[in-house]
Every structure is written in C-alpha cells, then in structure tokens.
Write a structure and sequence with these properties.
GO molecular function, one term: metal ion binding
Structural class: alpha/beta
Number of helices: 4
Distance between the termini: 20 Å
Organism: Tepidibacillus decaturensis
Order of helices and strands: EHEHEEHEEEH
Keywords: ATP-binding, Cytoplasm, Magnesium, Metal-binding, Nucleotide-binding, tRNA processing
CATH topology: Rossmann fold
Number of domains: 1
Subcellular location: Cytoplasm
CATH class: Alpha Beta
Protein name: tRNA threonylcarbamoyladenosine biosynthesis protein TsaE
CATH superfamily: P-loop containing nucleotide triphosphate hydrolases
Length: 158
C-alpha cells in the first residue's frame, strides 16, 4: 500500500478549496471514495470537486436518491450509499465507475464488493467544529501519481 497524503483545513471554505484544486487533476473514470462520520464534510468536499469541474448546479447529498449526476467540464456522479442494506443492490455501479465522469462515493464501505481495485480513498476527520484532517489514500498507480503530483504542485500539504 502506498503512503497516505495528509492535509488540514480550518473551515468549510478551505475544505472546498482543497477539493476544487484536486478536481484539476481528475479524469473521466476516476473513482473517489469518501469516508467520515456524519457532519465530517463529505458533501462539502464533493461541492468543492464540483466547483473545480466547473459544475454550476447546486450539489447536495443524494442520501435518498442514492445517485445524482451533475454536468460540467467532466460529469460528476455523486453517490451516497449509506441507505443500501449491506450493499445488497447493484445499481449498475460499473456504468459509473468506468463511465465518462468522476464518481464520488460517500459511505463507500457499504458497497466494497462493487468497488474497483484502483481508486482514491479520502478520509475526513473532524478535529474541531471547523478543522478537518483529510487523508488521501491512493490505491493503484494512477492515484499514486495523482497524489504525488497534487501534493507537489498545490499548497496544502502538511
């Protein structure tokens, strides 16, 4: 397993800014999983990705719809699979994972058996009301290179 990349943000704006900068490095077919407690900032992070992908629609949690699609420079497929029981339903995930857009999955551990082997796992941890520790865990060469390039070129590293 490759090394994790750790970033700290001090408010929602910085969390979204980090995500927006990450979006510049994303390509169609990229899969990002988001893990964190309720209120950690998973949807805020996705909103930042959307901004970086030049999506003008309002992005909110797809908790009750499971999947929302947004269109910008690259399509964004935003999933919240928390309500799926034991990942029992395959909702055509592969269509998204290997499609034309970037897939963001909140609570991805619920569907681990459907996830591709290579992806970027992002853990968001609340340090205080405003501060977050955001850890990128790349799985696969594509995501290792993405994280190395991102941490080398962006001013967010710890």
């Amino acid at each position: 397993m490759s090394k994790p990349y750790v970033f700290f943000t001090n408010d929602v704006f910085e969390t979204q800014q980090l995500a927006s900068k990450l979006a510049k490095y994303l390509h169609p077919g990229d899969v990002i999983t988001l893990e964190g407690d309720l209120g950690a900032g998973k949807t805020s992070f996705t909103q930042g990705i959307a901004k970086g992908l030049e999506i003008s629609q309002v992005v909110n949690s797809p908790t009750f719809t499971i999947i929302k699609e947004y269109y910008g420079r690259i399509p964004l497929y935003h999933m919240d699979v928390y309500r799926l029981e034991d990942g029992a339903e395959d909702l055509g995930f592969e269509e998204y994972f290997y499609g034309e857009g970037v897939t963001m999955i909140e609570w991805a551990s619920m569907i681990h058996e459907f996830l591709p082997e290579e992806l970027l796992n992002i853990k968001i941890e609340k340090i205080s009301n405003d501060q977050r520790k955001i850890t990128f865990e790349p799985k696969g060469e594509r995501y290792i290179q993405l994280c190395e390039e991102f941490s080398r070129n962006e001013d967010f590293s710890d």
